[in-house]
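Subject: sequence -> structure tokens, single chain

Hey, anyone have a minute? Need the predicted structure for the following. Not urgent.
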Amino acid sequence: MDRLFIEEDKITLIKELGEGSYGKVWAGECLRKPVAVKVVGDTKLSELSKKKFKELEQEMLLMTASPHGNIILAMGISTHEEKLAIVMELLDGDLDTLLIKEKTSLSLFQRLLMARDAALGMNWLHSREPAIIHRDLKLENLMYKKNADNNYVIKIADFGLAVVKPKKKKALRGEALGTPVTMAPEIMQEMPFTQKADVYSFGLCLWQIVTRQKLFPDAKPERFVNDICVKNMRPKIPNDTRESNPELCELIECCWDADPQARPDFHDILLKLDDVLVDTAVTDQSGRQFWKTRLQAFPINQNIPWSPFWKSLRRYLGIDKVA
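Reply:
Had a minute. Here:
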């Protein structure tokens, strides 16, 4: 951890961004670069228990061991008034605030691109060796950076509950830690769990990204575990979404299936999302078919060079035999 340590006098805290059970997050500067600084709790570093220090050390190591464009960048650790601090890239906000609280005007296509970014980050974590299970995937932990062209890049944050699953281990077991409304049934019941627990949480995040609604607003805390785990209670998918985008509804329901084995992995989720994005962006049935069969190599949110597009279109229309 020494190589990750940043001297406290190199960091300036400017504005408090939020507070939770973990402590406070500040916007600040480090060596003249804007950063976010997570000051962990109120306990001084010298008074931290070995167990708590190990947990914080693992969080930092997991964040720095898996660099990816859709995972928040951790720059190092420091101290603030003798308390431990984690220094990270400064982002613009989280999807819970952007989509649910502020109801920012964004098309379904834009929001599904956000979901795809999140799936890319999760696919990266689950594909590591050993695999990393996030365990607290929710809109509050899906942060965004808004670019100059008004596009949003989504990054997975908060690895405080993340765990490592070695390849030889079929499943893990632990306490029911995390956020109840997005917690997988198997974790809720303290049963063995795998990466598919994150897939369940992603299904609920995807439902929120589509509907822009809160999860289970009328749920009764004393009955919640039974409702989720025994009665298989899930949020209602709107009828207009079922009619306009049945593949999207099928994906959501597969992700939150009660049986972890029935849930897709993030590789398959990404393939499904690509199809859903085409269906959302292209209304003409022939246009959808053309894109899915001829232009799979090109992300639908990026410009396609004219030459390969023209060759593919001519071949699709049978105008000539361009290879």
